[in-house]
Design goal:
It is built from one helix and eight strands; from the N terminus they run H-E-E-E-E-E-E-E-E. It has 141 residues and is mainly beta. Strands 1-2-3-4-5-6-7-8 form an eight-stranded antiparallel β-barrel.
Protein backbone atom coordinates (compact mmCIF):
# COMPACT_ATOMS: atom_id res chain seq x y z
CA UNK A 1 0.00 0.00 0.00
CA UNK A 2 2.78 2.47 0.90
CA UNK A 3 4.62 1.62 -2.32
CA UNK A 4 1.60 2.44 -4.49
CA UNK A 5 1.11 5.72 -2.59
CA UNK A 6 4.76 6.65 -3.27
CA UNK A 7 4.38 5.77 -6.96
CA UNK A 8 1.21 7.90 -7.14
CA UNK A 9 2.96 10.86 -5.48
CA UNK A 10 5.97 10.59 -7.80
CA UNK A 11 3.74 10.43 -10.89
CA UNK A 12 1.70 13.38 -9.63
CA UNK A 13 4.82 15.44 -8.97
CA UNK A 14 6.27 14.69 -12.41
CA UNK A 15 2.97 15.49 -14.15
CA UNK A 16 2.93 18.93 -12.50
CA UNK A 17 6.15 19.73 -14.34
CA UNK A 18 4.28 19.41 -17.63
CA UNK A 19 1.18 21.32 -16.53
CA UNK A 20 0.49 24.47 -18.56
CA UNK A 21 -1.72 27.39 -17.70
CA UNK A 22 -4.98 28.12 -19.47
CA UNK A 23 -3.60 31.33 -20.95
CA UNK A 24 -2.07 30.57 -24.36
CA UNK A 25 0.21 32.69 -26.54
CA UNK A 26 -2.80 34.16 -28.28
CA UNK A 27 -4.17 35.78 -25.15
CA UNK A 28 -7.14 33.45 -24.69
CA UNK A 29 -7.93 32.61 -21.07
CA UNK A 30 -11.32 30.89 -20.69
CA UNK A 31 -11.51 32.07 -17.07
CA UNK A 32 -10.24 35.62 -17.59
CA UNK A 33 -11.78 38.84 -18.86
CA UNK A 34 -11.70 38.67 -22.69
CA UNK A 35 -11.97 42.47 -23.01
CA UNK A 36 -8.86 43.22 -20.94
CA UNK A 37 -6.30 42.35 -23.66
CA UNK A 38 -7.89 44.85 -26.07
CA UNK A 39 -7.71 47.85 -23.70
CA UNK A 40 -5.08 50.58 -23.96
CA UNK A 41 -3.22 52.71 -26.48
CA UNK A 42 -2.48 51.08 -29.84
CA UNK A 43 -0.63 52.12 -32.96
CA UNK A 44 -2.70 51.46 -36.09
CA UNK A 45 -1.43 50.69 -39.60
CA UNK A 46 -4.31 50.97 -42.02
CA UNK A 47 -4.81 50.28 -45.73
CA UNK A 48 -7.95 51.02 -47.68
CA UNK A 49 -9.33 50.72 -51.19
CA UNK A 50 -10.25 54.42 -51.24
CA UNK A 51 -7.26 56.05 -49.50
CA UNK A 52 -4.49 53.52 -50.20
CA UNK A 53 -1.77 52.13 -47.96
CA UNK A 54 0.42 53.56 -45.26
CA UNK A 55 -1.86 55.34 -42.82
CA UNK A 56 -0.42 55.25 -39.29
CA UNK A 57 -2.19 56.72 -36.30
CA UNK A 58 -3.06 56.07 -32.67
CA UNK A 59 -6.22 54.30 -31.45
CA UNK A 60 -7.29 54.21 -27.80
CA UNK A 61 -9.50 51.32 -26.72
CA UNK A 62 -11.60 51.50 -23.56
CA UNK A 63 -14.33 49.34 -22.09
CA UNK A 64 -17.88 50.40 -22.93
CA UNK A 65 -19.39 51.48 -19.58
CA UNK A 66 -22.85 50.51 -20.89
CA UNK A 67 -21.86 46.94 -21.87
CA UNK A 68 -18.96 45.09 -20.22
CA UNK A 69 -18.55 42.79 -23.26
CA UNK A 70 -17.97 45.74 -25.61
CA UNK A 71 -15.04 48.00 -26.32
CA UNK A 72 -14.96 51.56 -27.63
CA UNK A 73 -12.25 52.38 -30.19
CA UNK A 74 -11.41 56.10 -30.22
CA UNK A 75 -9.99 57.60 -33.43
CA UNK A 76 -11.48 54.75 -35.41
CA UNK A 77 -10.90 55.10 -39.18
CA UNK A 78 -8.64 58.05 -38.27
CA UNK A 79 -11.67 60.25 -37.62
CA UNK A 80 -10.53 61.85 -34.35
CA UNK A 81 -10.44 60.82 -30.72
CA UNK A 82 -13.99 62.02 -30.14
CA UNK A 83 -15.19 59.44 -32.71
CA UNK A 84 -15.66 56.02 -31.12
CA UNK A 85 -16.70 52.76 -32.73
CA UNK A 86 -18.26 49.96 -30.68
CA UNK A 87 -17.15 46.35 -30.95
CA UNK A 88 -18.38 43.22 -29.18
CA UNK A 89 -15.62 40.99 -27.77
CA UNK A 90 -15.99 37.20 -27.58
CA UNK A 91 -12.78 35.37 -26.67
CA UNK A 92 -10.07 36.63 -29.03
CA UNK A 93 -12.54 37.94 -31.61
CA UNK A 94 -14.29 41.24 -31.98
CA UNK A 95 -17.31 42.10 -34.07
CA UNK A 96 -17.94 45.65 -35.21
CA UNK A 97 -21.72 45.77 -35.64
CA UNK A 98 -23.22 48.00 -38.33
CA UNK A 99 -23.24 51.50 -36.85
CA UNK A 100 -22.85 55.13 -37.80
CA UNK A 101 -19.84 57.22 -36.81
CA UNK A 102 -19.09 60.92 -37.40
CA UNK A 103 -22.66 61.96 -36.65
CA UNK A 104 -23.86 58.94 -38.65
CA UNK A 105 -22.28 60.19 -41.88
CA UNK A 106 -20.11 57.04 -42.17
CA UNK A 107 -21.57 53.56 -41.73
CA UNK A 108 -19.08 50.93 -40.58
CA UNK A 109 -19.09 47.20 -39.89
CA UNK A 110 -16.51 44.43 -39.69
CA UNK A 111 -14.53 42.08 -37.48
CA UNK A 112 -11.13 41.47 -35.96
CA UNK A 113 -8.95 39.00 -34.10
CA UNK A 114 -6.43 39.32 -31.28
CA UNK A 115 -3.36 37.12 -31.78
CA UNK A 116 0.21 37.35 -30.51
CA UNK A 117 -0.26 40.83 -29.03
CA UNK A 118 -1.82 42.35 -32.16
CA UNK A 119 -5.33 43.01 -33.38
CA UNK A 120 -6.04 42.52 -37.08
CA UNK A 121 -9.29 43.95 -38.39
CA UNK A 122 -11.18 44.07 -41.66
CA UNK A 123 -14.14 46.40 -42.03
CA UNK A 124 -16.08 48.52 -44.47
CA UNK A 125 -16.74 52.24 -44.22
CA UNK A 126 -19.56 53.66 -46.34
CA UNK A 127 -19.88 57.44 -46.55
CA UNK A 128 -22.79 57.29 -49.00
CA UNK A 129 -20.56 57.90 -52.01
CA UNK A 130 -17.88 55.20 -51.65
CA UNK A 131 -17.61 51.87 -49.87
CA UNK A 132 -14.09 51.65 -48.47
CA UNK A 133 -12.69 48.17 -47.75
CA UNK A 134 -10.22 48.59 -44.91
CA UNK A 135 -7.64 46.36 -43.22
CA UNK A 136 -5.96 47.49 -40.04
CA UNK A 137 -3.27 46.13 -37.76
CA UNK A 138 -3.16 47.38 -34.18
CA UNK A 139 -0.03 46.87 -32.12
CA UNK A 140 1.37 48.29 -28.92
CA UNK A 141 4.46 50.45 -29.52
Amino acid sequence: MKKSLKVFLVISAVSLLFFTACDDDNGFDPFGDPVEKFLGEWQCEESSTVYGDGYNFQVIITRNPDNSAEILMANFYHQGFDVKARALVVGNNLTIPRQGICDDTIEIQGSGTYKNGEVNMAYTANDGADIDEVTARLYKP
